[in-house]
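User: As part of a screening pipeline, I want to sanity-check one entry by hand. Below is the sequence and the SMILES for flavin mononucleotide. Please return the complex as structure tokens so I can compare it with the automated output.
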Amino acid sequence: MARTLVVYYSLTGHTRQIAQAIASARDADLEAIEDVVGRDTTLGRPRSAFEGLFGLRSDIREPRHDPREYDLVVVGTPVWSVRLSSPVRAYLSQQRDALERVAFFCTQGGLGGNWVLQDMARVSGRQPIARMVISESELNTPVAEEKVARFARPA
Ligand SMILES: Cc1cc2nc3c(=O)[nH]c(=O)nc-3n(C[C@H](O)[C@H](O)[C@H](O)COP(=O)(O)O)c2cc1C
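Assistant: Here is the complex for your manual check:
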């Protein structure tokens, strides 16, 4: 199977859960994007909503894995204010030149996922070979299992 890196940001664990399932299905390496400034504060949520809404990039730590060393890089994000999360926006723009073959997914409450996937393609300058949106209501159900199995199928 192609050597795969799964990169994600997750504030409340949903995107992490899906990223782990994809990594396990593809026997992939996993990279969590980390903020320099944490969001575990009273203002963390409103700040995240603000950064999403206005298309900002947050300060993120240096990634541990080099995407150039992989045949496929899967990137996952939560939806924030119907837009891309600021840490993933930062990652995709910083790694733009290092990304080649990509697949994108996002988790959402219920609105914005498809726009976010389009934005990920625009920010990275890459059209994904696969895309997936998972809503919170689908987590831990056969619907999500089926979506992940289809998305993670070797390509
Ligand atoms: C700041 C913030 C803004 C959000 N905005 C949206 C939104 O516009 N649309 C939506 O469907 N869900 C929205 N959500 C819900 C998250 O996208 C959803 O819970 C996602 O699965 C969270 O992923 P995580 O647990 O990996 O952080 C928002 C959540 C947060 C914290």
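Points to compare against the pipeline: DSSP finds five helices and six strands in the chain. The helical segments are 14-26, 44-53, 86-94, 113-124, 142-151.
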